[in-house]
C-alpha cells in the first residue's frame, strides 16, 4: 500500500532548485531558528576540524559556522545544486578582498547529495549541523544512522526540525479535500529522541518551541512556502493546479483562525543535540536517558 505521506525527493530537489534566488528574502523563520541554534551552540565547547552543514541551503549558517571555527574545514551538503551554487558564489564574493585569503582560510566544500545517503567516509566529521532539513527525509532512523556514521567519536550532532503542530491551521483548513495530502507529516519530539538512541547517540537533549508567523490572508502563507521551496512533496498531493473552488474553500476555512486582524501560521520547532560516544554507551536496565523540554511563545 502506498504511503501518501512518502516524500518525493525529485519534487523536493526541483522545488529547492527553483527557490534558490527567492529563499533568503522569505526565510524569516529559518533565520530565527538558526539564531536560536547558534545560541545553544554557545554553551558547547568544541573545536571540530571538519564541520558538515547537512541541508545547507544558500549557506547562511555555514558562513557563520566558519567564522566561529575559522580553522575548520566546512562541507556544505544539499540536495539542490542551485542552492549550493548560490552559496559558493556568495562565499567567493565575500572573501575576494578580505584578509581571510591571506591567512589561508580553508575553502568551503560543496556536496550535492541527500542526507539520507551521505557520501563521506566514516568517523570523518567533528560537528554535524542541520537546520530545518531532516523533515524532508523519509527514514529518520536511516538519517540518524548516517550522521552517526560520519561523526568522529566524541563528535556533536546539532539539529532542528518541525514537529506535528507545524502548519496545523493549513492542515485543518485543507481537510475538506480528504482525498489528498496538503501538509507534510512531521515527527513528534519523543519519537525523534527514540530514533537518536536507536542510531547509537548518547543521552540526547531535545526541546520544542511553538513559533507563529502572521499574515493578512492564506495566500501570504502559501507564497512564503513557495518562495523557500517548501512545496507539498508528498506522494498523496494533488497533481496539477489546485482548482478555484478548493482555494476559495481553503481561504474561507482558514478564516476561523483569524485573531487581531491576522491569520496565524504555527510552526512547532524541535531542537536537539547529541554526541557520538567515545565508546559504545552502556545504560543500566537497558534504558537510555533522553532530556526533553517544552516551551511555547
Textual characterization of the structure:
The protein has 297 residues and is α/β, with parallel strands linked by helices. It has a single domain (9-164, 185-212, 269-294), classed as Rossmann fold (3-Layer(aba) Sandwich), CATH 3.40.50.150. Helix content is 35%, strand content 22%. It is built from 11 helices and 8 strands. The protein has an 8-stranded mixed β-sheet, sandwiched between helices. Helix 7 crosses helix 9 (189-199).
Write a concise keyword list for the protein shown above.
297 residues, alpha/beta, Rossmann fold, 35% helix, globular
Give the secondary structure arrangement, pairings included:
Elements: H1 9-18, H2 23-26, H3 28-41, E1 50-54, H4 60-68, E2 73-78, H5 81-95, H6 99-102, E3 109-112, E4 125-131, H7 140-150, E5 151-162, H8 168-173, H9 189-199, E6 202-215, H10 218-227, H11 244-254, E7 263-275, E8 291-294
Parallel strand pairs: 1-2, 1-4, 2-3, 4-5, 6-8
Antiparallel strand pairs: 5-7, 6-7
Amino acid at each position: 500500500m502506498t504511503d501518501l505521506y512518502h516524500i518525493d525527493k525529485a519534487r523536493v530537489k526541483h522545488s529547492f532548485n527553483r527557490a534558490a534566488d527567492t529563499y533568503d528574502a522569505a526565510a524569516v523563520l529559518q533565520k530565527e531558528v538558526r539564531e536560536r541554534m547558534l545560541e545553544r551552540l554557545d554553551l558547547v565547547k568544541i573545536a571540530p576540524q571538519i564541520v558538515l552543514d547537512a541541508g545547507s541551503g544558500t549557506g547562511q549558517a555555514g558562513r557563520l559556522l566558519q567564522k566561529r571555527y575559522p580553522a575548520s574545514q566546512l562541507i556544505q551538503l544539499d540536495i539542490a545544486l542551485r542552492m549550493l551554487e548560490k552559496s559558493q558564489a556568495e562565499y567567493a564574493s565575500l572573501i575576494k578582498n578580505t584578509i581571510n585569503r591571506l591567512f589561508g582560510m580553508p575553502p568551503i566544500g560543496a556536496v550535492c547529495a541527500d542526507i539520507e545517503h551521505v557520501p563521506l567516509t566514516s568517523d570523518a566529521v567533528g560537528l554535524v549541523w542541520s537546520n530545518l532539513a531532516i523533515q524532508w527525509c523519509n527514514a529518520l532512523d536511516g538519517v540518524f544512522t548516517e550522521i552517526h556514521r560520519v561523526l568522529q567519536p566524541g563528535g556533536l550532532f546539532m539539529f532542528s526540525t518541525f514537529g506535528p503542530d507545524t502548519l496545523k491551521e493549513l492542515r485543518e483548513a485543507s481537510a475538506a479535500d480528504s482525498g489528498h495530502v496538503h501538509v507534510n507529516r512531521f515527527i513528534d519530539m519523543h519519537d525523534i529522541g527514540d530514533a537518536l538512541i536507536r542510531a547509537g547517540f548518547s543521552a540526547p537533549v531535545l526541546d520544542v518551541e511553538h513559533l507563529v508567523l502572521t499574515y493578512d490572508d492564506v495566500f501570504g502563507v502559501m507564497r512564503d512556502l513557495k518562495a523557500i521551496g517548501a512545496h507539498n512533496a508528498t506522494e498523496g498531493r494533488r497533481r496539477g493546479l489546485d482548482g478555484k473552488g478548493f482555494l476559495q474553500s481553503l481561504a474561507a476555512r482558514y478564516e476561523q483562525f483569524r485573531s487581531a486582524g491576522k491569520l496565524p501560521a504555527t510552526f512547532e520547532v524541535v531542537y536537539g543535540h547529541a554526541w557520538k560516544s567515545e565508546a559504545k554507551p552502556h545504560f543500566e536496565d537497558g534504558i537510555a536517558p533522553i532530556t526533553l523540554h517544552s516551551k511555547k511563545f
